[in-house]
Design brief:
There is one protein chain. This protein is about 10% helix and about 40% strand. It is built from three helices and twelve strands. The longest helix has 9 residues.
Length: about 180
């Protein structure tokens, strides 16, 4: 028997990502777990309206989405716990500028450079709807066909109600293979 627990956001865990934007000549970062797919060519990055980075995203109309793996989790956790208004986070990660001008974390196994095409506001949140300009992947995480291999990439997942980070699990089957 199922119990009604009220209006609960129950789509966790989600991938942990570090969003980057340029603050003038330097990068600024924040940890985000509110990311989603909108069709096959757009993503959504949702940030609390008070985030320091939001003004730079809105001004430049660009951001990077850097997938967090276990090797960069301590730094990612830090940039999610300190406001850019109170601390200069530009040196937390070694980075380079991508072809679209967004900061790409060198240590991140996968980074998407995105252009903001719209902003959707809800109470307390700004959700940036983005197209993907470029995707950079460490070659070790590409299969023979040149596609991303999430078996080796192993993104960290974030579970909101308990504020815990999780590892990705094993493959349990191929999609659309269970039909009879």
């Amino acid at each position: 028997m199922k119990k009604n627990i009220g209006s609960a956001l129950a789509l966790y865990p989600t991938p942990a990502v570090v969003v980057g934007a340029m603050d003038g000549e330097k990068a600024t970062w924040t940890l985000v777990a509110h990311v989603g797919i909108i069709g096959h060519d757009h993503i959504l990055v949702s940030l609390a309206s008070a985030h320091y980075i939001n003004s730079f995203i809105k001004a430049g109309k660009k951001l990077s989405v850097n997938i967090v793996d276990e090797g960069m989790l301590p730094e990612a956790d830090y940039v999610g716990s300190v406001s850019g208004a109170k601390a200069d986070k530009s040196q937390v990660f070694e980075y380079e500028l991508g072809e679209s001008g967004t900061p790409i974390i060198t240590k991140a196994p996968l980074t998407m450079e995105c252009s903001v095409v719209d902003t959707y506001n809800t109470q307390g949140f700004e959700s940036f709807i983005c197209t993907i300009d470029n995707t950079y992947v460490e070659e070790a995480h590409l299969n023979e066909a040149g596609k991303i291999n999430y078996g080796t990439l192993k993104p960290v997942l974030f579970e909101f109600p308990t504020y815990e980070y999780l590892r990705t699990g094993d493959v349990i089957g191929k999609c659309l293979s269970f039909k009879k």
